[in-house]
Amino acid sequence: MRGVEIPKPGGKGVRQLGIPTAVDRLVQQAILQVLDPVLDPTFSASSFGFRPGRGAHDALRQARTMCGTAMRSS
Q1: Residue 2 φ then ψ, to 5°
Q2: Which of 10, 26, 41, 46 lies 20 to 30 A from 55 at CA?
């Protein structure tokens, strides 16, 4: 990880920003490829954050479906 200092808003000092190197990214990807198939099936079907093939639009679509179903059954 390479560190770079960037100025804070308002000129109140600096903060450290970590920038991954090529080796860092390679290791992260290797770990992802091993752990993802093991852990992904354990997540809830309603979980959409940072999952392959799922996004915010999918979450909204499911929420609209679930709200519509709940309203009709009341």
Answers
A1: -100, 135
A2: 26
Q: Are 48 and 58 in contact (CB under 8 A)?
A: yes
Per-residue buried b or exposed e for 31-61, using 16+ beta carbons within 10 Å of the residue's own CB: eeeeeeeeeeeeeeeeebeeeeeeeeeeeee
Place of tokens 């770079």: 4
* d(C-alpha 50, C-alpha 18), whole Å: 21
On whether the CB atoms of residues 54 and 62 are closer than 8 A, the answer is: no
Q: Over the stretch 37-56, which tens digit does the pLDDT of each residue have?
A: 999 999 998 899 888 889 99
Record the tokens describing residue 67, joined without a space.
Answer: 């709200």
Token pair in block for residue 70: 């709940």
Q: For residue 1, which amino acid is it?
A: M
**What pTM value is reported for the model?**
0.57
